[in-house]
Amino acid sequence: MKLFADRPEPLTVSGTNLEHARSHNRRAVLETIRLNRQLTRAELARLTALTPQTVSNIAAELLDAGMLLAGQPLREGGRGQPAVPLSINPDGAYSIGVQLGHRSLSAVAVDLAGRVRARTERTVLRPAPEQALPLIAAMLGEMRGAAELDWRRLLGVGLVMPGPFGVEGMTSVGPTTLPGWEEVDGAWLSRELGLPVLLEKDATAAAIGERLYGMASSLRNFAYLFIGTGLGAGLFLDGRLYTGGRHNAGEIGHMIVVPGGRVCECGNRGCLERYVSLRALHEELGLGDGALASPDPLAGLPIGPDGERWLERAAAPLAQAVNILECLLDIEAVVIGGLLPPHWLDALVARLHPLPASTRRGDGIRLRLGSAGRDVMALGAAALPIFDEFNPQYEVLLKNGRR
Ligand SMILES: [Zn+2]
Would you state the CATH architecture of domain 93-205+378-400? Predict the structure, then answer.
């Protein structure tokens, strides 16, 4: 995965000049600089649609707090102020991304530029909150001891796990969800860990990671289909994450694509994730649900006749889902990624062509392969505290300035 994608056009994040939206504007400035690597105040004002005065105030505040670096002035002599390029100070702030899966718990410490500065991992077996929390605390301690980071500049922790959240009959039913997490929220986790914690679904975090660091950085409208134990989608619409009224937008795993089809734990028949998910693949291979808890049984496994049969059965429902997403959302592309090993993912995407007609024309760029799965997710998790405009830790850093 590349930290910065090659892109022909500068990327924009719109701001607003309302006084009460200062924190939103700060995020817009930080994200726009990060997406474009280096910008002058004038360029920032143009790209964010903020006034030069607002940009100037925010830049001064962020420079003061050590979150931005000022480069060499771009021209000397002449009239007026020389243009000073601003860039992100990687050591201006840090965040932690934690990814909780069915059989692994991994954590990365990321700097403000999105670079991974420390990582650690544990093998788990579908842990309940009371088992996972001490492990997470120990992993944070381990990274704190190993990395040369100023932990006073830590913005918080982003935790990602399989969705959906808080939906009766879907949240804690069946082997694709994690048991015991129905009532858990960010506030409780924050109290337990003593750090701000933001909770997000794996598909949404993967979409954030792909938008910030991956091949979707140039896309303003896309859906990220995350093939995990189940199936979910993260949605970026008009350049913004869309999470829905109760944070369950994109839970397409329980969209009925085969009326009268396979029974699903949610009570319906023919749900999409009964055909397109690791669990569906394991079933086809005769591995059963026990495989979800073992080390990846697909790694290095060639696609045999059973695998071909799964691809055949998964392709039509998945192509239908792509068609629905395109027609419903008018998106530029559907990105497909997740926990399938790359050779399986390639084979699945190859089977989707030719795609059914939709409001999108052409074929080739309608589908894109996501970057490497796990890193995108953990990076997306780590991005949650950095891009949370209401994160109180920002105010602490701004108030204290450089230390
Ligand atoms: Zn279902």
Answer: 2-Layer Sandwich (3.30)
- 243 burial via Cβ count (<10 Å: 0-12, 13-18, 19+): middle
Model confidence at 5, pLDDT cuts 50, 70, 90, reads very low
In eight-state DSSP terms, residue 380 is H
Cα(129) to centroid of ligand 1, in Å? Answer: 24
Q: How far is the CA of 180 from the centre of ligand 1 (A)?
A: 19
What's this model's pTM, rounded to 2 decimal places?
A: 0.77
> Hey, which CATH number is domain 19-78, 1.10.10, 1.10.287, 3.40.10, 3.30.310?
1.10.10
Say how many Å lie between the CA of residue 377 and the centre of ligand 1.
24
Give the span between the Cα atoms of 304 and 396, in whole angstroms: 56
What DSSP line would sit under 57-76, residue for residue? HHHHHHHHTTSEEE---S--
Give the separation between CA 202 and CA 165, rounded to whole angstroms. 11
Say if residues 383 and 214 touch (Cβ distance below 8 Å): no
- Distance (Å) from CA 275 to ligand 1 centroid: 11
CA distances from 103 to 54, 267, 388 (A): 47, 26, 28
Please name which of 37, 2, 20, 27 lies closest in space to residue 11, comparing C-alpha atoms: 37
Rounded to whole angstroms, the maximal C-alpha distance in the chain is 75
Evaluate whether 297 touches 287 at the Cβ level (below 8 Å). yes
Q: How confident is the model at residue 134 (pLDDT cuts 50, 70, 90)?
A: very high
**Alpha carbon of 177 to ligand 1 centroid (Å):** 12
The rounded Å distance from CA 266 to ligand 1 centre is 4
SS3 230: coil
- 389-393, long-range: CB within 8 Å, 24+ apart, which pairs? 389/23, 389/24, 389/26, 389/27, 390/23, 391/155, 391/156, 391/196, 392/196, 393/93, 393/154, 393/155, 393/156, 393/196
C-alpha of residue 163 to centroid of ligand 1, in Å? 13
Ligand 1 centroid vs 276 CA: distance in angstroms?
A: 12
pLDDT band at 12 (very low <50, low <70, confident <90, very high): low
Q: Which CATH superfamily is domain 216-370 in?
A: ATPase, nucleotide binding domain (3.30.420.40)
Q: How far is the CA of 379 from the centre of ligand 1 (A)?
A: 29
Identity of the amino acid at 31: E
CA–CA separation, 205 vs 299, rounded Å?
23
> What separation in angstroms does the CA of 237 have from each of 32, 54, 116, 208?
17, 26, 27, 12
